[in-house]
Amino acid sequence: MAKRRNRNQLAKIKEEFIDGKQTELSRKITRFERALYNRVFDDFLASLDVSQGSINTTTQNINLTASLDKIFAELQPEYNKIITSFGNDLVNIGKFNAGYFESVSPKTLDVADKGHRSITEVIGVKSDGSLIKDGFLDRFAKDTSLFGDIKDTVYKSVSSGKSFVDLKTDLGNFIQGIEEIEGGFQKYFRNYAYDAYQQTDRKYQELYSKELELTAFIYEGGVIETSRPFCEYCNGKVFLKEEFQNLTRSDVAAFIKYSGPKNPTSGIPSSGWDPLIDMGGFGCKHSKNYISDFLAIDLRSDLKIVNGKLVKG
């Protein structure tokens, strides 16, 4: 019983670390958006030639759009720090998995270093924390599409003589967001970064489970008001890897025995879904934590060991 409590505690600590780092990343992005908007306002908008509330379509104003490149270049190092910090967060998830699996298997220490090297190569982070050229995070940092969108918005507004107030509002909404609408950078990270925390954790789990020959896991994370039918059904249950890995989107409704009013495949992508890595789909925060065969049998009555293999029956 002591080992099970230890496993539960370590799983919870790992979950809290991931949640905390996601929140911290969100705050960093919000501060960056605020700093960017302030610079755009102070160094660009305040310098525009305006008459009767409208932006004058002059060569001077059009040339001023070039000052945005200087603003972006000066803020790029701060943006890169956020990317690097994000990468280090992903790497550190491995340390929590190493600690978790020490409560599951005595062979964990032999796996930890291999797991660290494997995942950091995928993420694109060197041992000193710097980014690997053309790796996932390096490409992430070099993606200047949002800066380009800001510049395009400004150029079109200046060229058309748009209202100064309208341009200011448009830029404020795009960069910082408004009320429940996220700013451009927050939305970008929401689409391409936040899920990486859970997916990295799940990849570590897969690597360890393969090396340690573990075949059962607990679907964990709890249920909230917005939980999807798939996660509601799976939460707290023990599954064999083979029950999950071959699931397709069309199997979901039958798998979770669902006939309610919600869409049973809500959040699950129409193609490319890997249930062991994506689990409940976009934005899913649930964890998949592998456990020993003996704990799996203790928690699920229809499992047993046959010829040294954990099976259903």
Q: What do you see in this structure?
A:
The chain has about 325 residues and is mostly helical. The protein folds into 2 domains: about 190 residues, no CATH class; about 100 residues, no CATH class. Helix content is about 60%, strand content about 10%. It has 13 helices and 9 strands. It has a 3-stranded antiparallel sheet. A two-stranded antiparallel sheet has the order 1-2. The longest helix is centred in the first third of the chain and has 42 residues. The radius of gyration is 24 Å and the shape is elongated. The two termini are about 25 Å apart.
Question: What labels describe this entry?
Answer:
three-stranded antiparallel beta sheet, 2 domains, 313 residues, elongated, single chain, two-stranded antiparallel sheet, mainly alpha
